[in-house]
Amino acid sequence: MKALKIVMFSLIACGLIFSVAFAAGDVEKGKALFNDPKAFNGTAGKSCGSCHPDGQGLEKAGMKKEWKNPVGTWKSLQDAINSCIVNANKGKALDKKSAEMKDLVAYIKSLGKKKAKKAW
């Protein structure tokens, strides 16, 4: 009985670990979206990287609790991203729960980690 409890607990723990890992998004896919001017069906011919080359200016964006850009103040990183997609790129907003949004968020959060690594 004790062995069964250990096996069940281990399976649950592994499931939680993998679900968090997959929910986090793919940094490389996010970077590709960030730099693709056609990614959001935009008419401005711009990518996120057009205004933020190599993520410039977004190094702390993944750690904030509030985001400001020229068109407003946002309570979530996803809303701030969509604001830029719609207003700067003239594109279509992403579903906040979509894989593309998770990938973009993962990439933007990774920018702060790269900056921290360089400081060492």
Taken from the alpha-carbon principal axes, the silhouette is elongated
Which structural class do the helices and strands define? Answer: mainly alpha
Helix content: 55-70%
Largest sheet, in brief, is: 2 strands, antiparallel
Oligomer: single chain
> What percent of residues are in strands?
5-15%
Q: What is the C-alpha radius of gyration, as a whole number of Å? A: 18 Å
Describe, in plain words, how this protein is organized in 3D.
This protein is mainly alpha-helical. Helix content is 55%, strand content 5%. The chain has 5 helices and 2 strands. The protein has a two-stranded antiparallel ribbon. Strand 1 (67-69) and strand 2 (72-74) form a beta hairpin. The radius of gyration is 18 Å and the shape is elongated. The termini are far apart.
Attribute tags:
120 residues, mainly alpha, 2 strands, 55% helix, elongated
Short description:
By secondary structure, this protein is mainly alpha-helical. The protein has helices at 2-23, 27-34, 48-51, 77-87, 99-119; strands at residues 67-69, 72-74. The chain is elongated and about 65 Å long.
Write the layout of secondary structure elements.
Layout: H1 2-23, H2 27-34, H3 48-51, E1 67-69, E2 72-74, H4 77-87, H5 99-119
Antiparallel strand pairs: 1-2
Helix pairs in contact: 2-5
